[in-house]
Amino acid sequence: MQPTRQDLRPRRAPAAIEWRVAEALVPYPAAVAEMEARVAAIRAGEASELVWLLEHPPLYTAGTSAKDEDLLAPGRFPVFRTGRGGQFTYHGPGQRVAYAMLDLERRGRDLRRYITDLEEWLIRALARFNVVGERRAGRVGIWVERGAHGGAQGAPTGREDKIAAIGVRVRRWVAYHGVALNVEPELEHFAGIVPCGIGEPNLGVTSLADLGLPVTMADADVALKAAFEEVFG
After folding, report:
1. If the chain, 233 residues long, is cut into consecutive pieces of 10 residues, what is the mean pLDDT of each piece?
2. Residue 217 burial (CB < 10 Å; 0-12/13-18/19+)?
3. What is the pTM of this model?
4. Residue 53 is a catalytic residue
5. CA–CA separation, 169 vs 165, rounded Å?
């Protein structure tokens, strides 16, 4: 595809990244509409990059790779088909969603690096609560080891739980959607889907509260912002 005249137009020097925190639950369609409008404004040089911290009411989203059979309870919560990458995931109260609308044109046009940076963002935020978050080959998101000595005669069980999800869409080199960190959501709500298509019995979902950490949403926001500045500048 040949670049258009508009694609070749130099963009305005970037302003400082805006941070926004939603005090009330944000309906998913409203969030997507807001993101798409902001992406267009960033692309046109009319707005700064934005990180938007929010919570959604209970819902399931299906990414571009979602399989219908992974929706185990179709009538439980609203289901939204979305253009982000990935499969099914749950959003709801107690989960901090961080939608990052960032200009990858100015950040190197490297989507693989961007995903790696999102992972690093979450890993560093979790480290502030002494939680070791880890990447896993072939699995999207950030994972923590659980029950390392829960097997027979103290043998490792290999139990790992997902504590944060990642889903990204890019439009003309402006990225949106982002990450979701489980602070204190209702974990049973994940039972209505096969999260991210991963159904192995030794893999599950956890949260900071489930790990025994009394972290507030405000605490999580402080950690996310500090870690973001370390990774993205």
Report:
1. 44 74 98 97 96 98 89 94 86 98 95 97 98 92 76 58 95 96 97 80 92 97 98 93
2. middle
3. 0.88
4. no
5. 14
Separation in Å, CA 84 to CA 4, 70, 95? 24, 17, 18
* Predicted local confidence at residue 150, as pLDDT: 40
**Cα distance between residue 55 and residue 53, in whole Å:** 7
Find where tokens 């107690």 sit: 94
Question: How many other CB atoms are there within 10 angstroms of residue 160's CB atom?
Answer: 20
Torsion, Cα 213 218 223 224, to 10 degrees, reads 120
Residue appearing with tokens 């405000």: 218
R_g of the chain computed on alpha carbons: 18
Catalytic residue (one of 144, 196, 198, 208):
196
Q: 3-state SS string over the chain?
A: CCCCHHHHCCCCCCCCCEEEECCCCCCHHHHHHHHHHHHHHHHCCCCCCEEEEECCCCEEEECCCCCHHHECCCCCCCEEECCCCCCEEEECCCEEEEEEEEECCCCCCCHHHHHHHHHHHHHHHHHCCCCCCEEECCEEEEEEEECCCCCHHHCCCCEEEEEEEEEEEEECCEEEEEEEEECCCCHHHHHHECHHHCCCCCEEECCCCCCCCCCCHHHHHHHHHHHHHHHHC
